[in-house]
Design brief:
288 residues, alpha/beta, Rossmann fold, DNA polymerase, domain 1, 2 domains, six-stranded mixed beta sheet
């Protein structure tokens, strides 16, 4: 029986931020604890599945094209701690030295690179499965028969599939953008439609699929809902520009460069020396 060909794409910023905050609760005194947790998570992913391709994607700059649409975009985020920035630089250096492919692009977020990479390569390589590791809910819009979202659920790494999404929301993953256009996204400082909650947003997208179709058929709704939506039309369409991920970027990397071998990487001398230098004893053990 032929083994399924799998590619893993890791949202590097998302994972390292979470590792950094988790590391603050570790009693172990080590200034590189976030990298330690990142490597542990990554190794558990790689050992669990036989990935033949691997890509790790990072944000390039703090601001991007979305700030030109909404100047307050992500303004609610706390400043990145210096210790985290230092660990991010060191981690990226480690991956470069241990032959793991990184990607970032000025003026675009890691999510946009992931969306472009997944969208373009799933069409070019229909016999491959692509797993995206991230807790970022925006990436749910990428789900398909080929694409799954890999995430933490109750302390375990699980794959969330397109069919599971459809069962939970009763609309297609590509319409998740339209759903968020109505709800907004508090974590990114994107306001939703006042008066539209989770249940009503879900029902509207189940019925109309897109916000454009919703506004074209607004007369089918109650007078109260018509008024709420009419007053927020500009906001909703602005949200669509903010939340829709770019799928047509010219990528700085290509499919062939993503080739990965667990057997080769676990024996990489730069990786081993890095772990020895920083006293990552359990990482060294898990590599063996």
């Amino acid at each position: 029986m032929e083994t399924t060909k799998r590619c893993l794409i890791i949202d590097g910023n998302n994972l390292l931020y979470r590792c950094y905050h988790a590391s603050q609760h570790l009693p172990w005194e080590n200034e590189f604890k976030a990298i330690f947790i990142f490597l542990r998570v990554m190794i558990s992913l790689l050992k669990k599945n036989n990935y033949q391709k691997l890509l790790i994607v990072f944000d390039s700059t703090k601001t991007n094209f979305r700030h030109q649409i909404l100047s307050e975009y992500k303004i609610n985020r706390l400043a990145t701690p210096l210790q985290l920035l230092q660990q991010m630089d060191l981690l990226q250096e480690l991956f470069t030295q241990s032959d793991i492919l990184l990607a970032k692009l000025i003026n675009f977020e890691a999510d946009d690179l992931i969306a472009s990479f997944v969208s373009q390569n799933s069409k070019l390589h229909p016999d491959w499965k692509l797993d995206v590791f991230s807790q970022d809910k925006d990436l749910l819009q990428l789900l398909s028969s080929q694409v799954s979202i890999c995430r933490y659920t109750k302390g375990e790494i699980t794959l969330f599939s397109c069919s599971e999404f459809c069962q939970e929301y009763s609309f297609a993953p590509h319409n998740y953008v339209d759903y968020l256009c109505l709800l907004g996204d508090r974590s990114d400082n994107i306001s939703g439609v006042s008066g539209i909650g989770i249940k009503s947003a879900q029902q509207l997208i189940q019925k109309f699929e897109t916000v454009e179709n919703l506004y074209q058929n607004i007369n089918q709704l109650t007078a109260k809902t018509q008024k709420i939506l009419a007053e927020s039309q500009q906001l909703v369409y602005q949200n669509k520009k903010l939340i829709t991920l770019k799928k047509d970027l010219v990528l700085p990397i290509n499919w062939e460069q993503c080739d990965f071998s667990w057997e080769k990487w676990k024996n990489n001398q730069n990786l081993i020396e890095f772990c020895q230098k920083h006293q990552f004893k359990s990482i060294l053990k898990s590599l063996n």
